TrEMBL record, chain A:
Gene3D superfamilies: Periplasmic binding protein-like II. It comes from Cryobacterium tepidiphilum. Residues 1-27 form the signal peptide. This is Extracellular solute-binding protein. Keywords: Signal.
TrEMBL record, chain B:
It holds the Pfam family BPD_transp_1. Belongs to the binding-protein-dependent transport system permease family. It comes from Cryobacterium tepidiphilum. The lineage of its organism: Bacteria, Bacillati, Actinomycetota, Actinomycetes, Micrococcales. GO terms for biological process: transmembrane transport. It is found in: Cell membrane. InterPro entries: MetI-like, MetI-like_sf. This is Carbohydrate ABC transporter permease.
Amino acid sequence: MRTSLRMRALASVAAAALLLSGCSAGAGGDGGGDNGGDSSGPVDLNYWAWAPNLDKVVDIWNTKNPDIHVTVNKQDGGDPAITKLLTAIKAGSGAPDMIQAEYQKIPTLVASDALADLSAVGANDIKDKFPDAVWNSVTLGGDAVYSIPQDTGPMMAYYREDILKANNLTVPTTWDEYAETARALHKADPKVYLGTFSANDAGWFTGLSQQAGASWWSIDGDAWGVDIDAEATNKVADYWGGLVEEGVIDNKPMYTPAWNKGLNDGTQAGWVSSVWAPGVLSGNAADTAGKWIAAPLPQWDASNPSDGNWGGSSTGVTTQSKHPKQAMEFITWLNTDPEAIQALIDTSGIYPAATEAAAGALTEPPAFFSNQPDFYDVAAKVAQTVAPFTYGPNVNVAYSAYNDEFAKAAQAKKKSAFLDAVGAMQEITTADLKKSGFTVK
Amino acid sequence: MTSMATPLRTAGGIRRGDRSKRERVSVASTTILLLGALYCLFPVFWVLTASTKDGSELFSTFTLAPSTHLWDNIVQLTQYRDGLFWRWMLNTALYAGLGALVSTYVSALSGYVLAKFTFPGKSTVFKVLLMGVLVPGVILAIPQYFLMAQVGLTNTYWAVFLPQIISPYGIYLARIYTAASVPTDVIEAARTEGAGEMHIFSRIAMPMMLPGLVTIFLFQFVAVWNNFMLPYIMLGDDNLFPITVGLNGLLNQGATAPALYTLVITGALLSVIPLIVLFLLLQRFWRVDLAAGAVKA
């Protein structure tokens, strides 16, 4: 039953997309062009991606497969690439054959008719290589396959082990313990914080809400629901708002020069982050190598562990590609072949979504965590507990609402402002869905 | 400027009182100018010291204390993705340098025609041109993308090069300069001698307009250099990026990768050097031009 409901909802998404893009369809809407895909002779495929050194991984493919040559065009992070892709889709030409798409972007791309359905070119054959929850996020629960999972970002917590030890503190396992540890640490040295609440990183807050049991969008019949202002999200906002109001957790955003300085000088003694954190830490605070310890996120209910996702992406084929079959062949290799997986881990530093193929390759901890041989055991354990979450077609609107509203709340340092911000996100996101022509319940 | 002003004043005969008064004023204005210079040069000084620090020093040592890693940073920047940085520099030289050169020629030709020929619709063309001056380039980036997509030229050198060749402001300036510096009598004399129109333009009018053309070139060079939106939207392949879009990309690697601060700072330092050289070299023409205008007025 559930599946058919979802499909109807998706049909309405697609219909809305047709309405939206109707004016530009005449220019070059030759669609998937799957008929042209069987032509013999070498083909050139263009691939927009931002994972570091991905071109080196693709070189391995190119030397082995002279008939399907793939060129990587490196992009800036996730958002600009998607914006560019949507512009190219509207214009009717200029899109690449393949795109690296974060999971939360897939509903948006599907609504704009940007991603080709890969089930027609055999995507379901590799379904078993990926965990069900991850596969679900590239099919959106329907029969079509819009993208192939590449990596995931189960959230983890990182602490400066030396600083905790010096203060006779241990790694917290519950959020209550995390708050206690933050208080003790800040009391011992008012300059030191166990972490920061970042009003710049909507994906981070989404992951924390996901862990608490939130799912911000839902599909019911042919209607979308927005459930941001729900108990789970409010619990997370209330918790962090309380810590910020108390002053024991910093209120500065992450990824700023000031935050980098904190990581280097130890005034940021912890980071609630994700499995890919070693790459960021080694780039931003190279001198602190070996001083950190990775742990599962603190839990709300220790007897029932849960986790959220921050980051992670998939490889999709655009509707403007003339060679979806060859693209699928390459994507299958890139995301499931043991040699490719090994190269993705070694040179791109990602945490592959194809868990079984990755297990054999993830034996050594990242160099930055050489002090913690079981790093990837911790990661594998928490990856099992990632809670289900549904993304909607206007994630970008919800995320920018987060940035605007929580920036004010973090500045105000008031718990009530954090809860107001959740309410505002709900309102803005719902209003935008209605305005874009979706049925909203 | 001073060398021109002084003889004039001496010829007029300045009394002692005037001179001392003038010096007092110049102390105040010199102070203001020095403060202005400090305001402008301090960030440059910051870039200079910051580019000598390595990744961890950048966020931990005193802001203005220089370190010893400038060369390491340059080497690192050069090694980044097999020398991509220098490719960006070359691209910028191509877009801004060659682009401004071609644009200057087109502007000169159009401005010359508008100033020296009469043809039906001339004033309409000029009015439309004036309206074009009022439209900022940023607004045009998206429509230009759609136009380029129609002819399948997005994500190529042409996508950034072609739209910036036509500069309404450049044409407007060229028209003014032509009117001021190329006497109609000279053109008519050349015609009587039997010279072709293109010949008159390139051999007689262009050299007379030269100082003005240098100004147009510099304006256009800076405009292309500063136009971030156009290449940002048009290009997907980072081998085609100009330096501005490339450096911006190094800072926005997404949440899962560290921002490459030291590389960006070193890159910024290296990228302003050609600009400084260009301005120092062309300054002579610029000055002659200002003086020429002053005398005529």
